């Protein structure tokens, strides 16, 4: 028997979400499909939720590979490794924003032999906060939550002796709602820094730079949504589909 554990968990430094593993493939029987088509009113568009600025303070100590007599230039580039917005389910006009990244710095300095050298470092930063939106986050069926545990909506029958539930005969309802993610885009950035030189030797050369930075990010938060327009029958396709979904999942 195959052991179906320890695989596909996102471990071993996997960057992407791995596929769900299956220990076995079983035989099944199925019939044709019953398809309903809804009159669609409106279009699916990318809606801007908010344009926001994120500001964070960073301090870092940079140790040069050799002693230096002067700093000629410091070129800076901001790179984000994470920009994730998750809904605040108590308020559709607010999200939780998680931002991580680094400032890549190429430092050109003059060493003790009057030669210009360069040294590159990444200075990481991170910040988390709530963000108020101009347009609300939308969910396709109103409620964003799924039910994947068959014990939540379980159907049982009484046992033959009438004294308990039949543990060998039961059913359940599970459902998944695939919500549109909130996209985060870096439009621009600004780095305001102050450099402090230290660790001088007897000849006035230094090899340590303490940088105090103010990193400002200009972000755009957006989500793909269905913009409703009344169809000829007076309803939208999204509303009709949501009503059927709530009916078959026994939700109000």
**Counted beta strands:** 7
Radius of gyration: 29 Å
- From the helix content, strand content and strand pairing, which structural class follows? mainly beta
Helix percentage:
under 10%
Protein name: SipL SPOCS domain-containing protein
Region (Disordered): 228-252
Organism: Sporosarcina globispora (Bacillus globisporus)
Quick synopsis:
By secondary structure, this protein is mainly beta. It has 1 helix and 7 strands. It folds into 2 domains: 42-141 and 181-226, no CATH class; 145-178, no CATH class.
Features:
single chain; 252 residues; mainly beta; 2 domains; five-stranded antiparallel sheet; two-stranded antiparallel ribbon; elongated; Exosporium_prot_C; SipL SPOCS domain-containing protein
Notes on the protein architecture:
This protein has one helix and seven strands; from the N terminus they run βββββββα. It has about 250 residues and is mostly beta strands. It folds into two domains: about 150 residues, no CATH class; about 35 residues, no CATH class. β4 and β5 form a beta hairpin. InterPro entries: Exosporium_prot_C. It comes from Sporosarcina globispora (Bacillus globisporus). This is SipL SPOCS domain-containing protein.
Strand and helix layout:
Elements: E1 42-87, E2 94-111, E3 116-132, E4 154-158, E5 165-172, E6 182-198, E7 206-228, H1 237-248
Antiparallel strand pairs: 1-2, 1-7, 2-3, 4-5, 6-7
């Amino acid at each position: 028997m195959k052991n179906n554990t320890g695989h596909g968990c996102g471990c071993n430094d996997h960057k992407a979400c791995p596929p769900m593993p299956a220990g076995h493939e079983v035989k099944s029987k199925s019939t044709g499909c019953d398809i309903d088509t809804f009159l669609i009113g409106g279009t699916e568009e990318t809606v801007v939720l908010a344009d926001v600025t994120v500001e964070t303070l960073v301090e870092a100590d940079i140790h040069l590979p050799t002693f230096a007599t002067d700093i000629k230039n410091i070129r800076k580039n901001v790179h984000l490794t994470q920009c994730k917005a998750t809904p605040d389910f108590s308020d559709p006009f607010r999200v939780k924003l998680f931002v991580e990244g680094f400032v890549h710095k190429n430092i050109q300095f003059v060493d003790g032999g009057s030669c210009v050298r360069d040294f590159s470092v990444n200075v990481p930063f991170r910040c988390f906060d709530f963000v108020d939106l101009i347009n609300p986050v939308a969910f396709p069926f109103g409620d964003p939550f799924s039910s994947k545990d068959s014990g939540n909506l379980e159907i049982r029958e009484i046992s033959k002796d009438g004294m308990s539930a039949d543990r060998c005969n039961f059913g359940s309802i599970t459902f998944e709602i695939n919500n549109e993610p909130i996209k985060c885009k870096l439009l621009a950035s600004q780095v305001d820094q102050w450099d402090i030189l230290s660790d001088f030797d007897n000849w006035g050369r230094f090899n340590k730079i303490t940088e105090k930075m103010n990193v400002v990010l200009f972000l755009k938060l957006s989500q793909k949504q269905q913009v409703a327009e009344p169809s000829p029958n007076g309803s939208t396709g999204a509303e009709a589909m949501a009503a059927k979904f709530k009916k078959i999942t026994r939700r109000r």
